[in-house]
Amino acid sequence: MVAERRDLLDDKLSGLTGRLGEFDSLVVAFSGGADSAFLAAMAHRVLGPERALAVTAISPSLAGSEARECQELATEWGLSWSSVETHEMERAAYRRNDADRCFECKAELMAVVAPIAAAHDAAIALGVNLDDLGDHRPGQRAAAEAGAVFPLVDAGFDKRDVRAASRRLGLRTWDKPAAACLASRVPYGTEVSIGILSRVERAEAALHALGFRQCRVRHYDDTARIEVELDEIDDVVSERVAVVAAVKACGYRYVTVDLEGFRSGNLNAALG
Fold first, then answer.
1. Which of 22, 90, 132, 141 has its CA 20 to 30 A from that of 268?
2. Cα 93 to Cα 46, 97, 99, 113, 192, distances in angstroms
3. pTM attached to this predicted model
4. Beta strands in 20-168 (DSSP E)
């Protein structure tokens, strides 16, 4: 079984190498997460620094720690890298935060990155994998409509494959906890503001400082709903004094724990 899994991963890596080699140049939207980091590293290996560029979109929805890590990874791996500011907060439909908020975010990303890609005669690639296709992800639709490509999907990579391949290649992002934009912590229908995003970012940073590596702080006005891995819920309870103090210091009045634990995209359940 292990050998079969290894052979399958070899085939997928070969397929991805071939797919990336079809592009004259590629601009990879690089958020620093496991998927985009793997794609950026592979594009760099296949196309080289002259033909592969990693671009990080900087906005209030990207945690400062993530932005810094993008630059650190780019330096560490020798990537051709640049950052660019996006302005999704200026879009009323984004701030309104309905079910299509992610469409507005990716539409803004594509609009800002498109001139960079055009200057390099490059396609724009996103680190979407097969597991992403089954969730409510209107941002993927926006990106596809704007001409983005999804090489990981084309090569048959799911999240497990990305992590296994990243580990094989020696990328330290192979076991990086899942990350998403800070706006994903705000329930649909609650208007997104810079103040809310900042509060969420500070609360999550406080939990990271307490040792909770994979966590979310879901924002419900003056209530913070904490999600951690199921096997860490007992740790939250045992450290409740420190947890409560840290989260309240970020502006929340009430601190709760979701007993179902961490789930990526769990606010999508409200969509029915």
1. 90
2. 38, 7, 10, 20, 10
3. 0.92
4. 26-29, 52-58, 80-85, 123-125
Question: What pLDDT, on the 0 to 100 scale, is given for residue 255?
Answer: 98
Low-confidence ranges of the chain (pLDDT < 50): none
Q: Please tell me the distance from the alpha carbon of residue 55 to that of residue 12, in angstroms, as a whole number.
A: 25
As a whole number of angstroms, the distance between CA 115 and CA 27 comes to: 11
| 14-39 core/surface letters (b: 16 or more CB in 10 A; e: else) | eebeebbeebebbbbbbbbbbbbbbb
CA angle 254, 177, 233 (to 5 degrees): 40
Look at the block and give the residue holding tokens 């539409």: 107
Phi, psi of 165 (to 5 degrees): -70, -40
Q: Which two tokens stand for residue 71?
A: 């630059």
Asked whether 77 and 43 are in contact (CB, 8 A), the reply is no
- Cα–Cα distance, 93 to 101 (Å, whole number): 7
Longest Cα separation, the chain: 55
Q: What is the DSSP letter of 149?
A: B
